[in-house]
Amino acid sequence: MLAATATTTATAAAKAPDPLARFHSQHVDWHVCALGAEDELGRALDVAGADCADITVPLDYSDPGGRTVSVAISRLKATDTAHRVGALLLNDGGPAGASLHMPLTKSAVMGEVADRYDLIGMDPRFVGRSTPLDCGWDLGSALVRSAGVDRAAYREEVAVARELAVRCKRAHGDVLPYVTTRNTARDMDVIRAALGEKALSYLGYSYGSYLGEVYTQLFSGRTDRMVLDGVNSPEHYSQTLLRGAEAANEEALRAWAAWAAARHGTYGLGATRGKVLATVRHILDAAAQKPLRIGGTYQLDERLLPALFIGGLGSDLDERRAALAETVRLLAKAADRKPVEPSEALAGQLEFLLTGAGSAPSSQMTAIICGDVAERRGIGSYWRAVEESRERFPLAGPLANNITPCEFWDRPTEPPTVIDNDVPALLVNATGDPRTLYAGAQGMRELWPSARLLTVEGARQHGLYGEYGNSCVDERVNAYLSTGRLPADDLTCEA
């Protein structure tokens, strides 16, 4: 009797109409990617032989008959059709990382393996060329602000966070509840169905690894080959993005300082690690006393300055360390109250942090995180966390623990995703990654016994496959994407 009832229930479920049928079966209108003569990305995609499309998805998946939004995708088709694996969807992280360009960059590292996939770039909902979201902020730094040196500065941070949240709710309150990772994962499954694929292969970096994890939870059994690079485990995904990574960033700062000291003749920041760190402290102290003037346009105080340092510590590659050293050289002159003209790179960073030029990406990133994990902790809790961390982590602590607009956001419409499945996947992480901690990769490896962990020992690098120039990593990821077979055991590559 029980068996008969179970069979009847399964049959009824199989015959139940698909509420998303019109989205799953939609015609994909592929077209050229360039939007005009000035569209460099679109032209590059077109030259490479890619095409683009806009996929229609529900704004609210609980109301599929209601309002819709569009998700922009690009495609570089497989050329080895005899050995075609399927679609490989790509995500560059963020949150709110536009990824339409990724078929171009990843086909280079994949080599001949790329010929066996349709490489799919996706701008997540409300990002890039998808239906847009911009809260009209006059700065681009909602989640990378430091608390400052005292309570007065922190009170200003509270006011900024509250005002940014109010502006966003005023501009986009009708859509903010649906700007979430879970809905982006649902969009991915609509894309899978619209492309006619039974399963998706996936390559995601940083936040993109979390997006991949959520997809596996919501759509069990619909993944093929999965590579998560810079593994962001659910336990480390919070509204203060760097909380828990303070020690890793301070260690990365000390390692960079030693590198810069060895090149004192080039940058003049100090001949020892201690002297370079003293230069950094001098810059921060000077900015706390009076904002640093950069060129005739920018003024940089101690609440935004740490973001420039932290942003430069995501890689131990010489060119990335050199870029930070050049920026610090200019900041040191500004701290001495000397006239300073920003480099092109620094001007771009300052424009993003200090003006409305960074409003759209910062709005999108904030909306995703707050839509996922916002919690009302109480204004005082952030200040206490800042003060507790400041002595041990003077640079990273006040930034990683500062208040954000999420404190004033509406509560998420869905609870955070709990990952309780087991997925065959290749997890890639460096032991010294200052963004997505190695402990997070180890945690996902324990959660997913069928997965394998590829570790790069001794690297302070965020993003490895095709990003680090490490042939050991690139070859092992390509072998997995080519064969679909994970290694028998976890693997290690040297930095």
What does this structure look like?
The chain has 495 residues and is α/β, with parallel strands linked by helices. The chain has 2 domains: 253 residues, 3-Layer(aba) Sandwich (Rossmann fold), CATH 3.40.50.1820; 195 residues, no CATH class. Helices cover 42% and strands 13% of the residues. The chain is built from 18 helices and 11 strands. The strands form 2 sheets. A 9-stranded mixed β-sheet has the order 1-2-4-3-5-6-9-10-11, sandwiched between helices. The chain has a two-stranded antiparallel sheet with strand order 7-8. The longest helix has 22 residues. The protein is globular.
Ends: how far apart? 61 Å
Mind telling me the C-alpha Rg? Answer: 23 Å
Question: Which percent range fits the helix content?
Answer: 40-55%
Percent of sequence in beta strands: 5-15%
Structural class: alpha/beta
Could you state the CATH homologous superfamily of the largest domain?
A: Alpha/Beta hydrolase fold, catalytic domain
From N to C, what is the helix and strand string? HHHEEEHEHHEHEHHHEEHHHHHHEHEHE
| Overall shape | globular
Tell me, rounded to a whole number, the average pLDDT. Answer: 95
What is the count of DSSP helices, taking H or I runs of 4+ residues? 18
Strand order of the largest sheet: 1-2-4-3-5-6-9-10-11
Main beta-sheet strand count, sense and barrel state: 9 strands, mixed
CATH architecture of the largest domain: 3-Layer(aba) Sandwich
Q: Could you say how many structural domains there are in total?
A: 2
Q: List the uncertain runs.
A: 1-10
What CATH calls the topology of the largest domain is Rossmann fold
Number of strands: 11
CATH C-level label of the largest domain: Alpha Beta
